Amino acid sequence: MTQSNVNARPVSLLLKALEAERDALKSGRFDQLAALADLITGLTLELQNEPGATRPEDLRMIRDHAARNARLLTAAQDGIAAARQFMTDVMTGNAATQTYDKAGKVSSIRAPHNRLEQRR
Quick check: is 98 in a domain? Predict the structure, then answer.
């Protein structure tokens, strides 16, 4: 189904807002998400106030777009958390180098914590 088949104005506006949210998530423009969330909430409330005006296929499209955006948001949150943890590890000296041992298993090499290296 193409967007030209969407008959209700609030539905097409909501789908456009969900696409804008997707674009913001994929491009890292997180500063736009609050305004988009307000817009999406308002359009959703508008749809709720017009019972019967939305076709089942429109609702499926909205659900699919919203579910996709939820997955993108979760991935973005996970990425930010991982980056924050990595930066914390680097700043505190807890970052480990990942390598493989003789058996091919992953192994971590860490620098001794709070020890000065003595040169001879």
Answer: no
